[in-house]
Amino acid sequence: MHKPSTIVSGQRLGRLIAEPNAENLPSTHTPTVPPPQAICDRALLVIDANSLPNPVAPTLSKSPNCPSPFVPPPGGNYHLHPPPSSLTATNPLLLRDALHRTTPPPNPTYPPLARLAMALATNSAATAAAAAAVSGGAASQPRRAAAFVPLKRRTISAIHAADPSKNNGSAVPAAAASSKASSFAVATPEKKPAAQGKWTVDSWKSKKALQLPEYPSQEELDSVLKTIETFPPVVFAGEARHLEERLAEAAMGRAFVLQGGDCAESFKEFHANNIRDTFRILLQMGAVLMFGGQVPVVKVGRMAGQFAKPRSEAFEERDGVKLPSYRGDNVNGDDFTEKSRVPDPQRMIRAYAQSVATLNLLRAFATGGYAAMQRVTQWNLDFMDHSEQGDRYRELAHRVDEALGFMTAAGLTVDHPIMTTTDFWTSHECLLLPYEQALTREDSTSGLFYDCSAHMLWVGERTRQLDGAHVEFLRGVANPLGIKVSDKMNPSDLVKLIEILNPSNKPGRITIITRMGAENMRVKLPHLIRAVRNAGLIVTWITDPMHGNTIKAPCGLKTRPFDSILAEVRAFFDVHDQEGSHPGGIHLEMTGQNVTECIGGSRTVTFDDLSDRYHTHCDPRLNASQSLELAFIIAERLRKRRMRSGLNNSLPLPLAF
């Protein structure tokens, strides 16, 4: 008779997978439990510690009999088994599954298993049979008999309340599920989240909405919104799902997110050359990070929709004249006149048209040959030809060229789409809710709702209230979401917010964007990381070193010191090294233009230089040279991180971090 299986809590398993350094698995112990005959309805995940160095970086594999993606139900304890011999570390699979917080295992002395296989039931109508709960002392200790615990299903809301008949990727018919005689099901945790109520595209209207303009004519507003509802989507649901998968890789430390673009797009500066230059500097930064850091780069632009801006004050006063604050070109104008500052619904139609045109050009650049690696030497901007960063980039580009030449000589093709195109996604702050609602569509493939104004949306520091309208809207759309977090964020509130927006704990769904300043980062970020880890939640951590470092220059202009930005980036990496978590990316306000808005950098922009080319409509941005300099520094830090982990690394880059 076979010995029963050992179980481990979802919380602990989530830590093992999301934070490999949280526990060190032994490299020699192999349990004697035989592999189960009927593991699961959809797929099998395997962690093989014997094939990995210590500390363990989990290896995840997928059964060849379960080729399609799956979304199991949240919560509970997970059964762990050694994998069948056919399930070696082939077919690497990124964990896309819902690992939800749960109670610790009843016996805290359970040892980690050397080989872990997680059997998961699917998100179907069929109920699972039982979960065997067994203590697991040392290998020499006797095991107690199995105890069977009845399962309960938790009601799933928000994005997971879609019609199962439309959700081909995650649902299985009840008959098919019950035909699999699997006793390795998932138990639902006792603690249930607070009921959120039924979500609809306009349920946010029942909540308190901050930072929304007051339009003078409700009739005109309604007419404009009805018009936008008839427009085609700006982006497609499948593209957003692909981005979510890539962000999940960054959460596991297998990719690095580069998110950048204008503080606020404007109608006045809408020009193909400006779009090209920003895209080009993002390509350059991506090349530096990929070649220098030897890590895949997920490129996300603050473009094609980043118009609306939150304001600390509803009104602005100059020389005794008080007018509504400028809230972005899709709301009102920046000229300080009464006519310009009146919110105009027609601006939303113009913002839509500009977003579509911008994305159309970006798609052409990304897939039409401009982004081909063979052109890496041609991406340098003219004004950087004789600069230090331009020279460093030119040196790196020649090394990439040599590598491509070697590949060609070895008979490897460099004409594959992976070498001639690039993936590029768009993002913006979800602020102007009427506009976002008008562009929300139900996906015919999955039955889920997507905000088709951008691939990724984020909720800002001023609008992330747990009971607010913006959180209510975002919990129901299936796009990957960002959460801007300052030093004011309470760790418990962050956990609650993540659970509201991602009740199934799906990797890639939530990206935490920290914006604190260097000193606050070192003090506050560790507590946030620990709270999220202890809750068993999987998120992607990226840093926004811009917003916490804004100062006022003697001339009265807002600026950001490059040294302060760099200090916050260093603090971000240092804290994640300290906590054993993954620094997943960087979020920048930047431009490909040769502006003088942030002081410092290798070309040393001074306070006196600010007025030369200060063009921003909102906050100061890094120019192309400063952006590239920061990319070289981050690439060096990523390279050193890979060296410490024992992974393959690239040749050293100039300038240590």
What features would you describe in this structure?
With about 650 residues, the chain is an alpha/beta fold. The protein has 2 domains: about 1-190, no CATH class; about 205-310 and about 350-370 and about 420-645, Alpha-Beta Barrel (TIM Barrel), CATH 3.20.20.70. It is about 30% helix and about 15% strand. The chain is built from 15 helices and 20 strands. The strands form 7 sheets. It has an 8-stranded parallel barrel, surrounded by 4 helices. A two-stranded antiparallel sheet has the order 1-3. Helix 13 runs parallel beside helix 14. It starts with 5 loop residues before the first strand and ends in a 12-residue tail after the last helix. Its cofactor is Mn(2+); Co(2+); Cd(2+).
Quickly list its features:
alpha/beta; TIM Barrel; eight-stranded parallel beta barrel; two-stranded antiparallel sheet; 15 helices; 13% strand; disordered N terminus; disordered C terminus
Pairing-aware structural class of the strands and helices? alpha/beta
Q: Could you give me the name of the CATH homologous superfamily of the largest domain?
A: Aldolase class I
Helix content, binned percent = 25-40%
Number of strands: 20
The low-confidence parts are 1-14, 20-194, 648-657
CATH architecture of the largest domain: Alpha-Beta Barrel
- Report strand %: 5-15%
Largest sheet: 8 strands, parallel, barrel
Q: Measured on Cα atoms, how large is the radius of gyration?
A: 26 Å
Shape: globular
Class of the largest domain, according to the CATH hierarchy? Alpha Beta
